[in-house]
Specification:
Number of helices of chain A: 4
Shape of chain B: elongated
CATH architecture of chain B: Orthogonal Bundle
Radius of gyration of chain A: 22 Å
Radius of gyration of chain B: 19 Å
Low-confidence stretches of chain A: none
CATH topology of chain B: Helix Hairpins
Chains: A mainly alpha (88), B mainly alpha (115), C mainly alpha (149)
Structural class of chain A: mainly alpha
Structural class of chain B: mainly alpha
Order of helices and strands of chain B: HHHH
CATH class of chain B: Mainly Alpha
Low-confidence stretches of chain B: none
Order of helices and strands of chain A: HHHH
Number of helices of chain B: 4
Shape of chain A: flat
Mean pLDDT of chain B: 85
Oligomer: heterotrimer
Number of domains of chain B: 1
Largest sheet of chain B: none
Strand content of chain A: under 5%
């Protein structure tokens, strides 16, 4: 019984998501983004990197990468703690 | 039909939710969460696509290119993929430890055996 | 595994290692970077574990876990290089020294390896971090539950 309730709720959520996808802006024509234009035009001049994505990951938005490295470190520490050898 | 990438990523998210609701196996729950992550990543990347744009890389770019796709969603998706990988590894480690201690991967039985 | 799998993985593993190193090294020029190259190298670890068994690589965990910590520390130190202006300031870009050359020409160009300041160094740090972390996770998952593990 509870499962059917969950499935009905899932249908509502999925219909909401898919209709949101249908009525979003047309694919390939996003709104103008000044930030992305700035990155594309100035990455070669300021960072001297040909790869704009890497210059964003490591330079413009380096804090994101720092947080991501922290999450990866925490996950590896967690796995090492969980799977450590148990004595006895 | 022009918005097919958005719709497909949303269908992926819905399928992941379906797996989370109907399955009891812990490994299958991890697969469902991974499918949701993939749908969200696909949605993020397809949000930044510009029609006729090339990849935002200048090395050997075609000389007469008109525009590039947006680089910021791609950079954030890169971060999201690595975080998804880390969480997947942690989930699988939890599943392995639970199977070792309880002898089952069924989420319902694990709850019954508590205490 | 069988002798076929072992032979093929002996051939494939060095090639995949070189490809991972290439992806990390050219992260500021071509698609790819530290994460992707590190994942490629970690897949080599998974291949070796599948082909030769996890017991043989057990002592590598003692190398991989400190390597991940060292790479994380190197990443933070590289970020601290620019703390005179701001955190994560790219001090090496355009300085003329190591990795300090400007791009050959604005717009499309063949690319030069000696550009982009701290980006290649950060790519190496993150690449080592990802390969050590994921390789250690793969080894730990494969070794868990063995009696002598």
């Amino acid at each position: 019984m509870k499962r059917w309730l969950f499935l009905a709720a899932l249908l509502v959520v999925a219909g909401y998501l898919i209709s949101g996808g249908v009525w979003l802006h047309p694919f390939g024509e996003p709104a103008r983004s000044e930030m992305d234009r700035f990155f594309i035009e100035n990455a070669q001049k300021e960072v001297a990197a040909n790869n704009v994505v890497t210059s964003i990951v490591f330079d413009y938005r380096g804090y994101d990468t720092l947080g991501e490295a922290t999450v990866l470190f925490a996950a590896v520490v967690g796995v090492a703690l969980l799977l450590r050898k148990v004595k006895g | 039909m022009g918005n097919m990438p958005f719709v497909v990523s949303m269908i992926l998210v819905g399928l992941g939710f379906l797996a989370l609701i109907t399955r009891r196996n812990l490994i299958k729950l991890a697969i469902g969460i991974s499918v949701i992550e993939m749908g969200v990543n696909l949605f993020l990347v397809s949000l930044g696509y510009v029609k006729g744009g090339i990849a935002p890389i200048y090395t050997y770019a075609p000389p007469g290119f008109k525009e590039m796709v947006f680089p910021t969603p791609q950079a954030l998706t890169l971060t999201a993929i690595v975080i998804g990988l880390a969480t997947t590894a942690l989930m699988l480690a939890f599943a392995v430890v639970i199977y070792r201690h309880r002898g089952t991967l069924d989420a319902g039985k694990i709850r019954e055996l508590r205490g | 595994m069988s002798v076929i799998v072992r032979t093929i993985s002996r051939v494939v593993a060095p090639v995949a290692l070189a490809f991972g190193a290439y992806v990390i090294m050219h992260g500021h020029l071509t698609p790819g970077g530290g994460f992707q190259g590190g994942a490629v190298v970690a897949s080599v670890v998974a291949l070796l574990v599948v082909a030769f068994g996890a017991e043989r690589w057990k002592k590598w965990i003692k190398v991989l876990l400190p390597l991940e910590d060292t790479a994380a520390l190197a990443f933070v130190i590289l970020a601290f290089l620019g703390v005179g202006a701001t955190f994560f300031r790219n001090v090496l870009a355009g300085s003329g020294g190591l990795f300090g050359a400007p791009v050959p020409q604005p717009g499309p160009n063949p690319g030069a390896l000696n550009t982009a300041g701290t980006l290649p160094l950060m790519n190496w740090a993150v690449g080592f971090k990802v390969l050590a972390g994921l390789g250690a996770v793969v080894l730990l998952l494969a070794l868990f539950g063995r009696e002598d593990g």
